[in-house]
TrEMBL record:
Protein name: FAD binding domain-containing protein
PROSITE patterns: FAD_PCMH (PS51387)
Ranges of residues in domain FAD-binding PCMH-type: 1-187
Xref: Pfam families: FAD_binding_5 (PF00941)
SUPFAM superfamilies linked: FAD-binding/transporter-associated domain-like (SSF56176)
InterPro entries given in the database record: Diverse_Substr_Oxidored, FAD-bd_PCMH, FAD-bd_PCMH-like_sf, FAD-bd_PCMH_sub2, Mopterin_DH_FAD-bd
Segments forming a coiled coil: none
Length: 289
C-alpha cells in the first residue's frame, strides 16, 4: 500500500534527532512492512478531540541510527536491535541455539521470504497485531524490551507488556523501542509452537507457544486468539488438563475476521494440550495445524 499522505522523511543521525521527529508527529520506520501493509492513522494531537486521528504525514527512518543487529552480553544473554530483520536474527551465529524455535515462531507470520528479509522483529512488536508471531517469540523467550525515552533516558519492560491491545503498545509519545534483551537461560530451554488458522495460509487465529526450563518451570504464551499476549507460568510442568483449563479460562478472546472468539478459545485449548505434550515428551511432535 502506498503511503500517499507522507510528505516528509527524517533521516536522524542521533537519538535526539529521532526523538524530536517523533515528538513532532512523525512515525517510526524500520523495515516498513507493517506500515505498507495497511492504512495507518495516528492521534491527531493534544488540540484535537479525543480519539480523533489523522493520516501519517512524516516518517523517521530508524535504520539510519545503524544499531548492531545482535550483541552478546556479559551474562551470556543477547541484545537484539529492534531494527534487526527476521532473516538476520535467524541467520546470526549468536542465535544458533534458538534458531529452531525462532524459525517455527516466525513461520507463523503471514509473510513471504521477501518480508523475512525486510521486516524487523521490533517492528512486529510495535505493529501490535494480535497475530504478531514476533511478539509471541519475544514473550516466550522471556525477553525484556529496552526503550529509549526522550531526554536520553532508558526504561525496560517485559516483552509481554509491550503490546497492550490491537494496534496499541506501551510506548509513550517520542519513545523508541531500542532492543530486545534475551536472557542466557533462554538458550537452555525446550520450546514448542502450535498455530491454528481458518485457512492453511491465512493469518493466525490462535498461536500458543511453550517453554520448559531445565529446572521444570513451564511457560505458555497465548497470542493471536487474545487481544494482547497472555503468559501463563507453572513451577513444574502442568498436566495437559491443567494447561487446557488455564488457557480456556482466559477472560477475553479476540474477535475479527480471522476467527470467532468461541472457536479461538476452543483451538487454543487444543493447542495447549499439544504444546505441553511436546514439551514433556520430546519424542511427540504433531504437525502444526
Amino acid at each position: 500500500m502506498d503511503l500517499v499522505s507522507v510528505t516528509a522523511l527524517h533521516r536522524p543521525r542521533s537519538r535526539d534527532e529521532a526523538h524530536a521527529a517523533l515528538l513532532a508527529g512523525a512515525t517510526a520506520l524500520a523495515g516498513g512492512t507493517a506500515l505498507h501493509g495497511e492504512a495507518h492513522l495516528h492521534p491527531a494531537g493534544a488540540a484535537a478531540p479525543p480519539g480523533e486521528t489523522t493520516p501519517l504525514t512524516a516518517l523517521v527512518d530508524l535504520l539510519d541510527l545503524r544499531w548492531p543487529d545482535v550483541e552478546p552480553l556479559p551474562d551470556g544473554g543477547l541484545r537484539v536491535a529492534a531494527t534487526a530483520t527476521l532473516r538476520t536474527v535467524l541467520d546470526h551465529p549468536l542465535t544458533a541455539p534458538l534458531r529452531p524455535f525462532l524459525h517455527d515462531a516466525f513461520s507463523c507470520l503471514l509473510a513471504s521470504w521477501k518480508i523475512w528479509g525486510r521486516g524487523t522483529w521490533g517492528g512486529n512488536l510495535c505493529a501490535a497485531l494480535p497475530a504478531g508471531a514476533g511478539t509471541a517469540a519475544a514473550c516466550t523467550l522471556d525477553a525484556t524490551a529496552e526503550i529509549w525515552t526522550p531526554g536520553g533516558g532508558t526504561r525496560t519492560v517485559p516483552a509481554a507488556e509491550v503490546v497492550v491491545g490491537p494496534g496499541r503498545t506501551c510506548l509513550a509519545p517520542g519513545e523508541i523501542l531500542r532492543a530486545l534483551v534475551i536472557p542466557a537461560a533462554a538458550s537452555r530451554a525446550r520450546y514448542a509452537v502450535r498455530r491454528h488458522s481458518l485457512v492453511p495460509s491465512g493469518r493466525s487465529g490462535s498461536l500458543v507457544t511453550g517453554r520448559l526450563d531445565p529446572g521444570g518451570r513451564c511457560t505458555l504464551v497465548v497470542t493471536a486468539a487474545v487481544p494482547a499476549p497472555k503468559v501463563l507460568t507453572w513451577d513444574r510442568p502442568p498436566t495437559a488438563g491443567e494447561a487446557e483449563a488455564a488457557v480456556r479460562d482466559l477472560p477475553r478472546w479476540h474477535d475479527d475476521p480471522q476467527g470467532d472468539p468461541g472457536w479461538r478459545r476452543h483451538v487454543a485449548g487444543i493447542a495447549a494440550l499439544a504444546v505441553v505434550a511436546e514439551l514433556t515428551h520430546p519424542i511427540y511432535r504433531e504437525a502444526p495445524c
